[in-house]
Known about the structure:
The chain starts with a helix and ends with a strand. Strand 6 and strand 7 (76-86) form a beta hairpin. The protein has one helix and ten strands; from the N terminus they run H-E-E-E-E-E-E-E-E-E-E. It is elongated and about 50 Å long. The chain is 13% helix and 57% strand.
Amino acid sequence: MRTIILAATLFTLSACDVFEADTDTDLGAILSFTDPAQLVIPGAANVGQPFIVNARNFGDACVSFAGTEMEREDRIVEFRPYDRRELDEACADILRIIEHPVTLVFNTPGTVTVRIVGRRVPQNQLDTIVRQVVIR
């Protein structure tokens, strides 16, 4: 009887390791090798109308969306896309694009600066992409 309980306990502990893989969260890779930034942002938007800014990050089969932080001060918006990496997995060497959309609205006309902060790979250096949107 003790052998059966011990075996069931060991199986349960092993299953927990399989289903709860270790992960690491880091800034998304917004620039990869010589590829240009995958950034979707309009050149102009209308006052009071929402528009979407979307940073498309690069990753492999073990990388997935973890969240997006955004700070807004007056006419400057900065956002940081975060991705999650499975650490205990064998990862297929495929290119995965991870979407990080943010909706913005401005109620006065003028120029808005949008900054996306992320990593440049393979150097793993911090990098910032800056674009401007004219609010009309």
